[in-house]
Amino acid sequence: MDKRSQNKIKKINDLxxxxxxxxxxxxxxxxxxxxxxxTILSQNxxxxxxxxAFQNLKKKFKIWNDVANASLNDIEKEIKVAGLGKxxxxxxxxxxxxxxxxxxxxxxxxxxxxxxxxxxxxxxxFKGIGVKTASCVLLFSxxxxxxxxxxxVFRTVNRIGIVKASDRDKTFFLLNENFPEGIAHSFHTNxxxxxxxxxxxxxxxxxVCPLKKICNYEEKNLDNKKSTSEKSFMLLDNI
Length: 239
Ligand code: SF4
Fold this sequence. Notes:
Layout: H1 3-20, H2 32-42, H3 47-61, H4 64-69, H5 72-79, H6 85-103, H7 116-124, H8 131-141, H9 151-160, H10 168-175, H11 184-197
Helix pairs in contact: 1-11, 2-3, 2-6, 2-8, 5-6, 7-8, 9-11
The protein binds iron/sulfur cluster.
């Protein structure tokens, strides 16, 4: 990413912080294994359902080794509320057993010593873990300066013109090459909020958008002054 794009990201971050504030961040970062399982469960569902599935899993199995040894059916039973039970059970079991095979324990501590892109490569080497899940683990659990690309970040950064890419993973790698220091969490979280409340897939509310002056979207909808800012947004909903 060139200096101009970096400056544009910083400017966007400032404008979003001005509108939405600095997103809160837990002082104690969640355990990376828990984060990985939680993010797998969050795919294509909402926060409530993925939270319930995660709680069911923890209640039933107590420790991750028990999940690793459980049958796919037993895992699926506990997480079915989050949908895609078979697929998610397989991804979770495969991830936990992969860690046991590699590290002899269920821990992602080895990732802490690895740079961002190689760490993404390590995490995505587990079948069922994609770039988005891996990048969420790096940002939210390991405090790395990485901006995951969900459906909202994909749509907004391409509309604004920070990158031009045909899918989320390509967008992720273009966006995160020399991402400006220290602002990935704020940028990512506020951009999701922008995508949910203002820059919606259909009829974006460009008239009330804090980025309207610097956005390059050719189909800007400046007449639309409605937003849904009252709606609460949940961090991992549908990412
Ligand atoms: S100006 Fe419109 S298209 Fe551009 S980011 Fe804002 S809402 Fe989205």
